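wait is this the right file?? whatever heres the structure
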């Protein structure tokens, strides 16, 4: 028998949801999808949120779900999260953008004295 069981996982996931009236997880399929997605993230290099005796990514992902470290979001919640992240990214300029503008201004400022010197040299001769 698998521990925790699908039923136990569904109860834990639904009890950790922000909306008490609407269950986040309605089927075993939802649990399997969430666990497999998290396991893929761990395989890709994401840091596990729990210590678990097994080093198998799927076992770690199931334990994270069971302990409430990972939340399952509905499609609407996922879209809201992505929209807010996109809005935050648009408000904060990238570091490279500002740095590029400053360096252009510096090169123009550095070029001006050099041009003046050249002009002064040619006038003296």
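ok assuming it is, sequence goes like this
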């Amino acid at each position: 028998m698998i521990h925790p069981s699908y039923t136990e996982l569904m109860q834990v996931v639904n009890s950790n949801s922000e909306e008490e009236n609407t269950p986040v997880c309605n089927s075993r399929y939802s649990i399997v999808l969430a666990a497999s997605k998290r396991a893929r993230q761990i395989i890709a290099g994401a840091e596990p949120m729990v210590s678990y005796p097994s080093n198998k990514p799927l076992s770690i992902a199931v334990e994270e779900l069971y302990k409430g470290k990972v939340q399952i979001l509905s499609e609407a919640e996922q879209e809201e999260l992505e929209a807010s992240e996109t809005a935050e990214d648009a408000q904060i300029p990238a570091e490279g953008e500002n740095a590029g503008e400053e360096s252009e201004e510096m090169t123009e400022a550095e070029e001006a004295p050099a041009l003046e010197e050249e002009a002064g040299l040619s006038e003296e001769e």
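The CA atoms of residues 12 and 35 lie 14 Å apart. so i think its the right one actually
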